[in-house]
Specification:
Blueprint: H1 12-56, E1 59-60, E2 67-68, H2 70-84, E3 87-94, E4 97-107, E5 116-126
Antiparallel strand pairs: 1-2, 3-4, 4-5
Helix pairs in contact: 1-2
């Protein structure tokens, strides 16, 4: 027995592959660039949190009240960010609270959505040492 191909089936696989392969490559590029964007966001958030914690180590315990030393806090956070290689902004928002905003810019792996991925992370750290509820003088 010999098998006969239908004339209208000839080349149908080639057309299917010609349409699906570029679509699958496009989806793969979007997944790779999207995951790089998510990593940049996570990195920005982590850097902001660590810089805020570093800023909160600048505690002034010389007075009657425990408070964050504004100049030392900004210096500690800036030093942490400089060591990490990223720029940021440090704001002392209260006697025991520090807010840090960091922007991370990284090159995109594929560059489908742009050549650079930029993400901004922010974190707030509040000093609460010595008791469970942070009820310091």
């Amino acid at each position: 027995m010999t098998s006969r191909k239908s004339l209208h089936d000839a080349g149908s696989t080639s057309v299917l592959i010609a349409v699906l392969v570029p679509a699958l490559l496009l989806v793969l590029a979007l997944v790779v660039d999207g995951s790089a964007r998510l990593r940049a966001i996570a990195r920005a958030d982590a850097l902001a949190a660590e810089a805020a914690r570093a800023a909160n180590t600048a505690v002034d315990t010389r007075g009657a009240r425990v408070a964050v030393d504004s100049a030392a806090a900004a210096s500690a956070a800036a030093a942490y960010l400089a060591h990490s290689g990223h720029a940021g902004q440090v704001t002392v928002t209260g006697p025991r609270a520090v807010q840090v905003v960091v922007t991370v810019a990284e090159p995109a792996p594929i560059g489908l959505l742009g050549s650079t991925i930029a993400a901004t992370g922010s974190a707030r750290a509040e000093l609460g040492v010595g008791t469970r509820d942070g009820g310091l003088p």
